[in-house]
Amino acid sequence: MKIANFTKTYGGRKVLDVPEFELKTGSIYAVIGANGSGKSTMAKILAGALPSDGGILPLEKGISVGYMPQKSYAFRMTTQKNILLRGGDEKKAEELMQRLGIQSLAKNRADRLSGGETARMALARLMMGKYDLVILDEPTAAMDMESTALSEELIKDYCKETGCTMLLVTHSMRQARRLGDEAIFLHGGKLWEQGPVEKVLFFPEREETAKFLDFYGV
């Protein structure tokens, strides 16, 4: 899957400037970098939620994309109905809720859930569908340790079952290591380093990558 050259400028400042790169089918890419490095902007552009400069479409035509933004949204209906918005049957929705530990919330109003519960609901809603490219922007940031473990297991299984390519934006280097096949390090809006996750995290080639990892830890 090829990603075309694309940029994003805010107020005359270029916040994202990524050259062409390629994503391997079936791989999970952990996107890491400091705040303001362009991670969420990249996710939004690839998901079609934000136009790139000049309206350039970075993805090839015909690629289906699933996207879970950093702030999950809940509609004013039950948790189960929120999950079923993307289609599929109730049996699958029930299975996803059980795996994420939210089956007891099926009939609750989704817009009254806690932040972590909303994130798990949104993850289940996304995984009702099947996509070529799945983009998760800090999917477990609002979750506790147990919910994070359940979600990570579901994410791994979803990738294996569907064969999708995934971009996982995360601030957790441990999560990047647990889930990622490869790592993408963004610095100042540029793709600074990319490669196998263990290599990037423990044997970075760029000084900026090493400084970032020294600060955030692995």
Structure commentary:
The protein has 218 residues and is of the alpha/beta class. Helix content is 36%, strand content 22%. It has one domain (2-72, 131-216): Rossmann fold (3-Layer(aba) Sandwich). It is built from eight helices and ten strands. The strands form three sheets. It has a six-stranded mixed sheet, with helices on both faces. A two-stranded antiparallel ribbon has the order 1-4. Helix 3 (90-100) packs across helix 4. The mean pLDDT is 93.
What is the secondary structure topology, with strand pairs?
Elements: E1 2-3, E2 6-10, E3 13-18, E4 21-22, E5 28-32, H1 39-47, E6 65-68, H2 79-83, H3 90-100, H4 115-126, E7 133-137, H5 145-162, E8 165-169, H6 173-179, E9 182-187, E10 190-196, H7 197-202, H8 207-216
Parallel strand pairs: 5-8, 5-9, 6-7, 7-8
Antiparallel strand pairs: 1-4, 2-3, 9-10
Helix pairs in contact: 3-4
Profile the largest sheet: 6 strands, mixed
Order the strands across the largest sheet as they lie in space. Answer: 6-7-8-5-9-10
**Radius of gyration, in angstroms, nearest whole number:** 17 Å
Mean pLDDT: 93
The number of distinct structural domains comes to 1
Rough shape? globular
Content of β-strand: 15-25%
- How many helices in DSSP terms? 8
Order of helices and strands: EEEEEHEHHHEHEHEEHH
Task: Tell me the name of the CATH class.
Answer: Alpha Beta
Number of strands: 10
CATH superfamily: P-loop containing nucleotide triphosphate hydrolases
Q: From the coordinates shown, what is the CATH architecture?
A: 3-Layer(aba) Sandwich
What structural class is derived from the secondary structure elements?
alpha/beta
User: Roughly what percent helix?
Assistant: 25-40%
